[in-house]
Amino acid sequence: MDEFDPDRDEVIQRAKDAGIETMITIGSDLKGCEGAIGLSEKYDSVYAAVGIHPHDAKYFSDDIYFKLKEWASKEKVVAIGEIGLDYHYDNSPREIQREVFRIQLSLAKEINLPVVIHSREAKKDTLEIVKESGINKGVFHCFSGDMDMAEKVIAMGFHISIAGPVTFKNAMKLVEIAKYIPDDYLLLETDAPYLTPEPFRGKRNEPSYLVHIASTIAKLREISMEDLARITTLNARRLFGVGQMLGAGEIAYKIRDSLYLNITNRCTNRCCFCIRFITSYVKGHNLRISHEPTEEELKNAICDPSKYNEVVFCGYGEPLIRLDLVKSLSRWIKDNKGMVRINTNGHGSLIHGRNILPELKGIVDSVSISLDAHNQETYNRICSPVYENAFGEVIEFIRESQKYIPRVEITVVELEGVDIKRCQAIAEDLGVRLRIRKLHRVG
Ligand code: SF4
Ligand SMILES: [Zn+2]
To answer: Is the pTM of this model over 0.70?
Structure first.
């Protein structure tokens, strides 16, 4: 944007000083896209989105399409946008806007990039076209729709980004939406140089002013600025893959109302059915972590344990390998009114060379232990444990668990050679519930 020609370096420095980790600069026409890419190459903290804005839809051509496609493969191009419909200005004929929107959506789908959608006074057509496209990864930027639209947008899996107008006195409708958007779907933006938030309304907008938008929304949602920053930063990182990622894999991921913690990829078994030997993804979550997360990282990822049904230690390895972390984090979760479950292979006491269950008393609400077989021979065949006597120790672990943990269940995967009836008998004998799992169904 020409508006920043005189002082672009200072603007970017001020953003950094204000705590803005990364910025995504948006192309809206060919020149803008080139500029955005240029900036992303010059500044570490700047990423680019490329797309043709509905205002310029009338200039769209095959050449432009192929240019976008070529640019989209650049490392720091993280989205296709702004694209969409603008029936307020009608700078391009509506029919052409719709057509160009469809084309760019299908491009995004083909190259698997999220989209940044501009929609102004075009609710019905925007929703219809997005739905038709089958895309569910992106953001409705600078949201100006109503509550009904917000609900529909989120139901399709899209994020909603709130800009400066939320700070304006007459922003009743947007205020309600800013309160309503679930944490996982909220993003912030400036839309600089436009839509400057209070107290600078009327002046040129710039990225550092994001803090004014953030503090307004934090107040509305009755959370701290830090919470809001953490939530929206994480959302932006996840959606666009920008900034400092928390390792390649996710350390905390939500399935239904529970939060699952992925604290290690190490395990003392090598089960033949283990999903980690097949894929890195569970329910769309990448679980292949590149480093074992610290307690602090996990707390940041959990945010508020009480908002989940349960916080579950599980993931792509055996959580009790990191017993000290499990204990300390469980205590924190309990202090923060959360419920704790551990999914374990039952090797905890073997790993640490002592009965660890008394140490879990009062800080773990439930435990799910993999029995996996009806006898040692079968266990060794399908689980390949590093300990020869693991099966007997698992049984012992189940027995001890009941003394210190309120709810204990055991699981077995339906596999050839596993005698479910005998597993059932073991469960009855131990006085615990047996859950039978289907092969390759996780979470
Ligand atoms: S115990 Fe769990 S994590 Fe470990 S190998 Fe078996 S299925 Fe995989
Ligand atoms: Zn826009």
So the answer is: no
